[in-house]
């Protein structure tokens, strides 16, 4: 007769594992000696070794009981079923790894390819990564708001970047994140932006856009909080007859 420690040693498991198998019903409770200690025989060793072999092979404990009590045919069918489940789990884990890899890439997880390509183009222009991150966060919200239109919007942004004035504007805004409100270069940003806006008006490229008032206000607020000089830039543009940021409109002189 064997003690629990001897049983565990012969089967190559821990005493804690033996007790756990008792708790879940895989290993029947044995008789006890006069002192109340469990005593095991050879059949317990065999069963425990079979349990250990199945668990080492990756069989879930919830399925071990089924296989322990199965005949040869049922055992083979059970193994095939477990293998099928494991292959499905492997596919799930592989998909999870892909998602994690995309998460590590940051932008690709939450943005469509068209926006990722646009951000890469901005990087190619040499803009600061801090500014790229602000653009990225804004486009995450836009893509979620108008998913059916995002590719069209980005195509227009690529077209805008063909304009040297727009490229100049981006460089100025990228560099201006820490400029104080009284920095004279903010006037230069306003000059370049107004030049771009006048060209857009003449080309008939202005309009309400795809955003409702609440979303446009949210995006404008985000822009105003992005740098110390943002409010002054908006104020200069309003003085010149332009209102808004996400949906810029030209305001008639009698409404200023």
- Number of beta-strand segments: 2
Distance between the termini: 100 Å
Average pLDDT, all residues: 86
Fraction in helix: 55-70%
Number of domains: 2
Largest beta-sheet characterization: 2 strands, antiparallel
Strand fraction equals: under 5%
In terms of quaternary structure, the protein is single chain
- Provide the succession of SSEs: HHHHHHHHHHHHHEE
Structural class determined from secondary elements: mainly alpha
* Overall outline: rod-shaped
Please give the order of strands in the largest beta sheet. Answer: 1-2
Fold blueprint:
Layout: H1 4-11, H2 15-23, H3 42-56, H4 61-68, H5 72-105, H6 107-110, H7 113-124, H8 129-145, H9 150-160, H10 164-175, H11 185-202, H12 213-224, H13 230-239, E1 242-243, E2 249-250
Antiparallel strand pairs: 1-2
Summarize this entry quickly.
Helices cover 66% and strands 2% of the residues. It has 256 residues and is mainly α.
Overview of the structural elements:
The chain has 256 residues and is mainly α. The protein has two domains: 4-104, Multidrug-efflux Transporter Regulator, Chain: A, Domain 2 (Orthogonal Bundle), CATH 1.10.1660.10; 107-255, no CATH class. The protein is built from 13 helices and two strands. It has helices at residues 4-11, 15-23, 42-56, 61-68, 72-105, 107-110, 113-124, 129-145, 150-160, 164-175, 185-202, 213-224, 230-239, and strands at 242-243, 249-250. The longest helix has 34 residues, at 72-105. The chain is rod-shaped.
């Amino acid at each position: 007769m064997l003690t629990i420690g001897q049983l565990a040693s012969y089967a190559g498991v821990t005493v804690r594992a033996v007790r756990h198998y008792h708790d879940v019903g895989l290993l029947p409770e044995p008789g006890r000696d006069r002192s109340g200690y469990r005593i095991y025989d050879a059949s317990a060793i065999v069963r425990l070794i079979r349990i250990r072999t199945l668990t080492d092979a990756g069989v879930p404990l919830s399925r071990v009981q089924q296989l322990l009590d199965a005949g040869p045919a049922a055992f083979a069918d059970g193994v095939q079923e477990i293998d099928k489940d494991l292959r499905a789990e492997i596919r799930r884990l592989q998909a999870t790894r892909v998602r994690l890899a995309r998460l590590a890439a940051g932008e690709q997880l939450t943005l469509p390819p068209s926006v990722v390509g646009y951000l890469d183009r901005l990087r190619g222009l040499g803009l600061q990564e801090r500014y790229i991150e602000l653009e990225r966060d804004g486009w995450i919200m836009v893509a979620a708001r108008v998913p059916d239109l995002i590719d069209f919007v980005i195509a227009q942004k690529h077209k805008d970047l063909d304009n040297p004035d727009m490229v100049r504007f981006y460089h100025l805004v990228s560099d201006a994140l820490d400029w104080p409100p009284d920095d004279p270069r903010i006037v230069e940003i306003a000059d370049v932006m107004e030049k771009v806006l006048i060209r857009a008006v003449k080309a008939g490229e202005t309009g309400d856009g795809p955003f409702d008032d609440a979303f446009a206000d949210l995006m404008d607020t985000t822009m105003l909080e992005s740098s110390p000089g943002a409010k002054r830039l908006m104020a200069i543009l309003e003085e010149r007859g332009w209102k808004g940021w996400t949906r810029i409109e030209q305001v008639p002189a009698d409404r200023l």
